[in-house]
Amino acid sequence: MRRFEYHRADTLEQASRLLTDLGEDTFVFNGGTDLLVEIRERLRRVRNVVDIKQIPGLSDIIYDETRGLTFGALVTVGRLERLALVRQRYPNLYAAFASLGSIQVRNRATVAGNVCRASPSADTIPPLIADGAFIHIYSRTNRRVVPLAEFFTGPGKTVLAKGEIVTGITVPPAGDNSGKAYLKHGRRKAMELSTVGVAVSLTMEGGLCDDIRITLGAVGATVLRAPQAEAMLRGTSLDAATVKNAANKAMEECTPISNVRASADYRRDMVGVLTGRAIKQALEAFA
Amino acid sequence: MKRIVELTINGEPRDMVVDSCRSLLDALRDDLGLTGTKKGCDVGDCGACTVIVDGEPVNACLMLAVEAEGRSVETIEGLQPGVDVLHPLQDAFMRYGASQCGFCTPGILMMAKKLLDDNPRPTDEDIRFGLSGNICRCTGYTKIFDAIKAAAIEMEAARS
């Protein structure tokens, strides 16, 4: 493995100082399942890693009916995947967690790490944005909370400034009138990066769609919303014809590229198929 | 920079001096001589290096040795309960021909052990899901699944 220096931080302040003081090519080292691969395959130039796993207070999972689900930056994908609360209240997050890497990877990988890596194909991002999640950010001068939808600025790029560290994520409560789904499309069931991922989170009132968020993964520079498709669906009963039209609109709203996993045309087609299917699956919560 | 790492391996306290960018996998194999854990892809895709750390299966290639400080690591060398005594999974793997070239076997056995510890009566789907992070290029998996099912039944019978 290409050589790098390993630093272990005991506090957020110390980690933040190391990140600013050690200069370029210094990265937060959390689960490490992506960073170590990038170092080994020479995909990223890394001189220093700052291990944040000994910092206290970043490993909690809390749920309350008003704030929702909050988990710290060190919480692994596997821990959340095994939580009954996640399986019951957030089937969209469960689907994303259970399809990320392998069991072994999920026992190390963190959701915060998957989010901060900011891959357009990251599995956890579409359902988190569709649920209206927030991300908690530490810096030595101020702490801020950012809607996850405003966190990404490009592939691998976020609003994080030098020395800022993500401390956790909050997902709003899952109400009884909500339906959620995440569908991942790949060539195989396990150990797969998503070719297209579509998440839908919606709420129903008196048989009509009160609100809906559709998010599209791996079909743009960041995970995208489909605002025009959403607008076509709000206030309707989500009948088959309206859903079909909205799914077609989502195909227009995405901006896929062709790469080793699929062509742009195929991805666009799959956005149409999966959007319709995800809405249908989200509605099964009311069946 | 080198660091001293104190950890427990297969129940025994061990100290090692490792370079801080060394993977747990390389430290196990090259520094401690525990070569039962295999290096397949070295990027977390194949599962051949699966070990159990504090009760959870992980890829030893995706963990630094320094991260194992204070932790308990179980490797294939610790699976058999005694000298000349095999774990029921190892025994079933031999009887069912679940190992051909054998390179994936240590990782699969560790994963299967964890699966049966958590879930003594797994369905076929549970076994497939549990082993989805382990690649075998020889067997086509059928005999591996058969061996795990047989071991599960035998372990259940031994308990009752």
Automatic annotation (TrEMBL), chain A:
Residues 1-176 form the FAD-binding PCMH-type domain. Its EC number is 1.2.7.4. GO terms for molecular function: anaerobic carbon-monoxide dehydrogenase activity. It comes from the Bacteria. Keywords: FAD, Flavoprotein, Oxidoreductase. InterPro entries: CO_DH_flav_C (IPR005107), CO_DH_flav_C_dom_sf (IPR036683), Diverse_Substr_Oxidored (IPR051312), FAD-bd_PCMH (IPR016166), FAD-bd_PCMH-like_sf (IPR036318), FAD-bd_PCMH_sub1 (IPR016167), FAD-bd_PCMH_sub2 (IPR016169), Mopterin_DH_FAD-bd (IPR002346). Signal peptide: none annotated. This is Carbon-monoxide dehydrogenase medium subunit.
Automatic annotation (TrEMBL), chain B:
Residues 3-79 form the 2Fe-2S ferredoxin-type domain. CDD domains: fer2. It holds the Pfam family Fer2_2. InterPro entries: 2Fe-2S-bd, 2Fe-2S-bd_dom_sf, 2Fe-2S_ferredoxin-like_sf, 2Fe-2S_ferredoxin-type, 2Fe2S_fd_BS, Beta-grasp_dom_sf, Diverse_Oxidoreductases. GO terms for molecular function: anaerobic carbon-monoxide dehydrogenase activity. It is an enzyme of class 1 (oxidoreductase). PANTHER family: OXIDOREDUCTASE WITH IRON-SULFUR SUBUNIT, XANTHINE DEHYDROGENASE IRON-SULFUR-BINDING SUBUNIT XDHC-RELATED. This is Carbon-monoxide dehydrogenase small subunit. It comes from Aminobacter ciceronei.
